[in-house]
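Sample log: 3',5'-cyclic adenosine monophosphate phosphodiesterase CpdA.
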Amino acid sequence: MSYKIAQISDCHLFADKHQVGYQDINPYNSLQAVLANVASNQPDLVILSGDISAEDSADEGLASYQLFSQLWQQSQLAAPLLVIPGNHDHLEPLNTELNDSVGWPVSLNAGPCWKVHGFNTKTDDSSGEISASELAYLTEQVHLNPRLHHLLVVHHHPHACGGWMDNHPWRNSDVFLQRVAQLPQIKVVLHGHIHHARVMHSEQCIFMSAPSTCWQWANTKEFAASHEAPGYRMLELNDNGRVETRIMRI
């Protein structure tokens, strides 16, 4: 038996749904196409790993979250949605419009054998950081559910990617990685931020990123976009802790 998850990330919606961004991509239109494809795969859960908005102000950010809600309703996706913030997001309007909980961290069951936890690594700039209270929450959740497999969702990349996005790092990723290594029940860490698909294995855990639903970044030393198409990641969580995954391009 498996539990199907779709991970979408880095939508970068503008307040104006007609506005285009890098490579002449309209993020509203590309997200609409991605969500239609996600719906065709009938996931049990959709994870949105941050940077829903591309706007600098909270008011325009709220408008972009309302556009996401419209697209979500139009997609007729029946799966629950788990949302975490990215560095471009505005916490209060994002939480009000798209998050049913009281904020972050947030947890939910994913079938009989898995538990999913979403965290907030947003700071006042583009870099990331996790708080001591979130790390304590993570440890508590794993200790409360020691027989389950655990999947974590964060926005920033825990491991350096070797490209220019390392200029926007996770400042205390070392303490996060130490905690993950101490808890062998953690099987998967999903993240966004770097706008390209990546898989990295540690001793017991797989670290994976998803493509952006709009423009993709090249993993080069200097800033550049790639010509890869928008997309998302599909995962199947098996009861024995194994994970199967594939990238879907639109």
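Observation: DSSP finds five helices and eleven strands in the chain.
Observation: The first strand starts at residue 2 and ends at 8.
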